[in-house]
C-alpha cells in the first residue's frame, strides 16, 4: 500500500491514503470558517452524502487549490521573514486593527527578542 504524507500547507484534490487508519481513501478538513479549501471540501462531501453530484468540477477545485496553496505559502514565507527580521508593522496596518494589531505584534516581538 502506498502512503502519502501531505505537507502542512499542501492540499490535494484526490483522496489520499491514511496509514494509521489503514484506509486507502481519506479526506481531512476542519472548520470551513478558517480556510476556503475546507469550505470547498464541505460542499463536495455534503453533496455526495446527499446522493448528488459534487457542485464543483475537478478542474475548478484544482485551479482554486493551486491559488490557495500559492497564497498560503506566500503568507507563511512573509510571516517567517517578518518575525526573523523583526520588522515592525507599518502604522497603517497597526491602526487598521485598533487594540489588536500593535499589541499582538509587540508581544510577539518581546517573546522573540534576544
Automatic annotation (TrEMBL):
Domain RNB: 12-50
Name of protein: RNB domain-containing protein
A Gene Ontology molecular function term of the record: RNA binding
InterPro entries: NA-bd_OB-fold (IPR012340), RNase_II/R (IPR001900)
Pfam families the UniProt entry points to: RNB
UniProt source species: Ceratodon purpureus (Fire moss)
Amino acid at each position: 500500500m502506498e502512503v502519502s504524507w501531505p505537507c502542512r500547507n499542501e492540499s490535494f484534490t484526490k483522496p489520499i491514503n491514511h496509514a494509521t487508519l489503514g484506509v486507502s481513501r481519506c479526506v481531512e478538513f476542519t472548520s470551513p470558517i478558517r480556510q476556503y479549501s475546507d469550505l470547498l471540501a464541505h460542499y463536495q462531501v455534503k453533496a455526495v452524502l446527499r446522493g448528488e453530484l459534487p457542485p464543483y468540477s475537478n478542474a475548478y477545485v484544482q485551479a482554486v487549490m493551486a491559488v490557495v496553496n500559492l497564497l498560503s505559502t506566500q503568507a507563511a514565507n512573509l510571516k517567517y521573514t517578518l518575525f526573523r527580521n523583526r520588522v515592525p508593522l507599518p502604522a497603517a496596518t497597526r491602526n487598521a486593527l485598533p487594540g489588536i494589531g500593535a499589541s499582538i505584534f509587540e508581544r510577539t516581538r518581546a517573546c522573540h527578542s534576544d
